[in-house]
Amino acid sequence: MKKLIKSVLAAASVTALTAGVASAQHETDRAQIEGVLGVYEKALNASDTAAAISVYEADGVFMPQNSPSQVGTDALRGAYDRVFKAITLNVDFEIVEIVQMAPTWAFVRTNSAGTVTVNATGDKGPEANQELFIFHKGDDGAWKIARYAFSTTNPPRQ
Amino acid sequence: MKKLIKSVLAAASVTALTAGVASAQHETDRAQIEGVLGVYEKALNASDTAAAISVYEADGVFMPQNSPSQVGTDALRGAYDRVFKAITLNVDFEIVEIVQMAPTWAFVRTNSAGTVTVNATGDKGPEANQELFIFHKGDDGAWKIARYAFSTTNPPRQ
Q: Under a CB-based contact definition with an 8 Å cutoff, are residues B51 and B137 in contact?
């Protein structure tokens, strides 16, 4: 995962806290979110469904291109199993921004790039996507993915 | 635009307010966000770039499929101009959920469906997408789109 190039703390999350406490908490939150993204990246590249769904909340939503939105752990398990059966990914995520909107909510925008191999044929090609994650911090203090949408940034196939 | 079928007020936005005030404010916020989505839907179906970009914040980000992320008003204007030059949309948005995460932040998940006409050829086909919007309420009290990603839910073209 590439280095963070932008991070913004939304004013909303600071107002109730002293600046010092907010800043330290913000750094902790950001580090935890980056850690979760790292786990997710590794899960994708290892075709590891269990690891991929472990970073979602139980009612998390995955919005994969060319598929209806997948809601909740069981649907996510099926969706990632289908993806990993069809393709093998080797991608690197670059964090464009992490914006903390509230003490328990943040969004992250990333770009990912690398290669995709079609398992059935062995054909390999370039993969490039843009991602929008909404993270939520649960009662246990863990940041997880609440909603996640992405799409390719490559031109349409002719 | 179809009727709202789910709306959740995140606990974070209530804690500092009395329940009654929060509830009334929440209804107002939700109504304003629905209004913005209505303007956006109308803009898409009218191929109206000025109206489409009017519902974004000045540093808003549009993440269209098959294109790099477009950041800020000038990039958005170019992106919508290109889309509307290429295709004519006739789509209906259905709101799946509006979740207010903080007094000035909300996310919205929608599905849209209808038809797309390729302007160069007149070819018409089915269009179906899933959308994830992050809304922000500015200092002027207006809710606008801060980030917006979508992708097709149709299967890949063969």
A: no
Q: pTM for this structure? A: 0.89
Alpha-carbon distance values, B121 to A142, B61, B86, B88, B116 (Å): 51, 30, 10, 11, 12
Do residues B148 and B110 make contact, with C-beta atoms less than 8 angstroms apart?
no
Return per-residue pLDDT of chain B as tens, 158 residues.
664 444 444 444 444 445 677 788 899 999 999 999 999 999 999 999 999 999 999 999 999 999 999 999 999 999 999 999 999 999 999 999 999 999 999 999 999 999 999 999 999 999 999 999 999 999 999 999 999 999 999 998 76
How far are the Cα atoms of A78, A84, A158, B35 from residue A87, in angstroms, in the given order?
A: 14, 5, 20, 41
- The answer to whether position B158 is within a domain reads no
Of B101, B134, B152, the CB nearest to A65: B152
H-helix or E-strand containing B36?
helix B19-45
B130–A69 CB contact, under 8 Å: yes
Q: How many domains does chain A have?
A: 1
User: At A8, which CATH number?
Assistant: 3.10.450.50
Q: Which residue of A has its CA nearest to B13?
A: A102
Phi, psi of B10 (to 5 degrees): -65, 145
Asked if residue A157 is part of any domain, the answer here is no
Report if residue A98 sits inside a domain. yes
User: Which residues form the domain of B95?
Assistant: 2-152
| CB–CB contact A150 B155 (8 Å) | no
Map residue B121 onto helix, strand or coil.
coil
Q: Which residues of A touch B93 (CB under 8 A)?
A: none
Q: Is residue B157 part of a domain?
A: no
